[in-house]
Amino acid sequence: MNLHHLLEKRREAGKPVRVALIGAGKFGSMFLSQVPHTPGLEVPVIVDLDPDRAREACRTVGWDAARIAATTFTKDGDAATGGNIEVIVEATGNPSVGIRHARAAIAAGKHIVMVNVEADVLVGPLLADEARKAGVVYSLAYGDQPALTAEMVDWARATGFRVVAAGKGTKYLPIYHDVTPAGVWGHYGLTAAEAQSAGMNPQMFNSFLDGTKSAIEMAAIANATGLDVPASGLAFPPCGVDDLPHIMRARDKGGVLEKSGVVEVVSSLERDGRPVLRDLRWGVYVVLEAPNDYAADCFRQYGLKTDSSGRYAAMYKPYHLIGLELNISVLSAALRNEPTGQPNGFRGDAVAVAKKNLRAGEMLDGEGGYTVWGKLMPAADSLKVGALPIGLAHRVKLTKDIAHGDVVRWSDVEIDARDETVAYRRAMEAKFATVR
Fold first, then answer.
1. CA nearest 340: which of 172, 144, 182, 178?
2. How far apart (Å, rounded) are the C-alpha atoms in residues 314 and 241?
3. Across the strands, what pairs with 376?
């Protein structure tokens, strides 16, 4: 709880924390909006495929002309690793590009904050290992749900509680897995014209709806915390915050989980479409178990909602502020040399599943697209069946027919083994394999 104090000391010494941002989209813009209000923090370099758009984003979030004039806007990713930059924020959302940027940052001795959770789930354990060996920090992005959940898990364990379940909330119905970008806006209460006028990307928004983003984020949490992944994937049980201790228990304790110690996403909708009472759509949670009768009595005495036994309780954050909170990761890396969550093993994977009957010769279009959605699998099971990661299921051609609902495998597609991303993923699998 002393990040602000440490930053003030750096500011007073005339040594501000200097950050390079790669990717000035929504997340990046939210981060940039806080920079003028954080003395001692500077962003002198912004890398984006469209530098003019990035410059306009800075104007939109309130940067004055002098700050914009003093900033380098460029397409060149190498600009992020130069000079006295301490921390690089990778916020592109493209797995291959994100891996390349992260490795360049690590090689240059810079801390890397990985907003790009798609890249993290694809190869994060190896990137984190590479960063540790180089003496720099590789960190999940605070404000995003994986880092916030990992923080709550760490809090629970550090205070002596057993973590029963942890995760986030989302809007979910089983039919969402087959939704394509053509039909996504109706589920958000928008017309296609309204969404287009707002500059909203249908494939990106569809990845949140069809379950892909949930799979990716829960894999990131499992890899960062050591929690297990449900054998059958995410169940998305409907559950409000008051019912977390009742529902998010193991089945043999009266809940819905296959066992204790897993990640799971709770739905803000009942299966018939009715809203869940006091839902957690925008938040994160951890369910914990009292280690003894005395602690269980304290739950009751201090007003915690518990299950009927009084042994299980939940803590939660109802909202997350995404890029507005990213300073926590940046400053933690620069001032404490600590990540706000990082993968320490390969326990969860997000794999491609067919949204419809697919034919040999078709091209897969990746996360949030028309052909596949991302399903959470235990990493050991993914490796055992040779499942294709969703992060590699873009612009690759099928060599076999795939039935609706089936997992796509490496052997079902044309893959260039010489591709840098493919090779790095294979290296990660080899180093962290947990095949049963």
1. 144
2. 8
3. 350
pTM of the predicted model as reported, rounded to 2 decimal places:
0.96
Please state, in angstroms and rounded to a whole number, the distance separating the CA atoms of residues 293 and 401.
Answer: 56
Residue range(s) occupied by CATH 3.40.50.720 in the chain: 3-142+325-336
Assigned token pair, 265: 């996403």
CATH for 3-142+325-336 (1.10.10.10, 1.20.120.520, 3.40.50.1820, 3.40.50.720)? 3.40.50.720
Angle, helix 212-225 to helix 202-209, in steps of 10 degrees: 60
Q: Tens-digit pLDDT profile for the chain (436 aa)?
A: 799 999 999 999 999 999 999 999 999 999 999 999 999 999 999 999 999 999 999 999 999 999 999 999 999 999 999 889 999 999 998 999 999 999 999 999 999 999 999 999 999 999 999 999 999 999 999 999 999 999 999 999 999 999 999 999 999 999 999 999 999 999 999 998 988 877 788 999 999 999 999 999 999 999 999 999 999 999 999 999 999 999 999 999 999 999 999 999 999 999 999 999 999 999 999 999 999 999 999 999 999 999 999 999 999 999 999 999 999 999 999 999 999 999 999 999 999 999 999 999 999 999 999 999 999 999 999 999 999 999 999 999 999 999 999 999 999 999 999 999 999 999 999 999 864 4
What distance in Å separates the CA atoms of residue 279 and residue 276, rounded to the nearest whole number? 5
Helices (H) then strands (E): counts for the chain = 15, 14
CA distance 430 to 91: 27
Q: Which of 330, 406, 337, 281 is nearest to 34 (CA)?
A: 330
CATH 3.90.1210.10 positions along the chain are 348-432
Helix, strand, coil percent content, the chain, rounded in steps of 5: 40, 20, 35
CATH architecture of the domain 348-432 equals Alpha-Beta Complex (3.90)
Amino acid letter at 362? E
Neighbours of 273 (CB within 10 A): 8
DSSP code at position 72: E
The residue among 394, 329, 346 whose CA lies nearest residue 138 is 329
Dist. CA 102–CA 89, nearest whole Å: 9
Classified as helix, coil or strand, 91 is: coil
**Helices 117-134 and 212-225: crossing angle, nearest 10°?**
20
Burial of 186 (0-12, 13-18, 19+ CB in 10 A): exposed
Q: Report the relative pairing of strands 87-90 and 17-22 from DSSP bridges.
A: parallel
Phi and psi at 166, nearest 5°, equal -155, 150
